[in-house]
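Hello, quick one for you while I still have it in my head. A protein chain has come my way and I'm curious about its shape. I'm sending you its amino acid sequence along with the backbone structure tokens. I'd be grateful if you could look everything over and explain what you see. Here's the protein in full, and shout if anything looks odd to you:
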Amino acid sequence: MMKPLLAVVLVVLSSMVCEPALAQARPLRVGISSPEASNPFHIALSRSIVETLKARQIDAVLLSANADVNTQINNLDDLVAAKVDAVLVAPLNEEAPAQAVQRVNKAGIPVFMYARTLSSKHAGLWLSFVGMDGVAAGFDKGRWLVDHARPGKVALLTGPAGAAPMIEQEQGFRRAIEPAGFKVVYSQPSVQTRESGIKLAEDALVAHRDLVAIYASNDDLALGAAQAVKAAGLKGKVAVLGLNGSPSALAALHNGDLAATVYLNPQAWGQVAANTVADFLQKRQVPPRFVPMSHRVVGQAEAFELIPPVLREKLGVQR
């Protein structure tokens, strides 16, 4: 007579044991919305985020916008549908992805920004931003030019229109150079590719062959601009300035094709961004609103030591 009751008790006990086990079976998942898949800086940054999350026993769902705002919006909606536990997003510009980020919020998913943010009017949509002080980076880049070149005409290759770090970087750069007598005579936004850098620099040099400098919002644009400067026979006369400190840009610095770049460390950025999210999810640590990452302007003298030794031969770099 006791067997049915015993069976019921065993079932109840079994369910009590299994339910927590099942709850623990699913690891935490973080969705990453990267703005670009071909940009070396964002490739290294994304890889670092994924590897750091993995080391914290957190799964990563990495989606790239491929420099297309609509794709990024769809990616964010996909992360909501996937019910990830948090989202790390580097918005392509400061306005267009805002509604999609708002939908992430409404789904109860915490949002963290890295590398780029939305406009400050949307600041309530994210918990923390891990990235550079764009104005300071641009200002330091401008000060380098003031210290190393005579005043003259400058062309700006400003990168994606409406992207907050690009706007801030340009603001800081102008703040440094314009009081020193430099004059911006050309300014054009674009995707951040070498091809765009070549074309825009060619256009700028046709209109203003007496340029003293070309500012580029990232290293890919700068490398393209440097190619155009060399083709025009103006190497050494037009200083080309980049940002990121990618190995290929450092090699171009060492070889004298670039004049300077703002050196960032995507591996360190990725680690800090991933650990900021992981600490929130696993330890309930509320992060600061802004987690600043370091930067420094480097020229030819510093470039060689910053190139990873395993890449020097591949990049054709020698002392």
Q: What stands out?
A: The two ends are 89 Å apart (CA to CA). The chain has twelve helices and twelve strands. The chain has a mean pLDDT of 91.
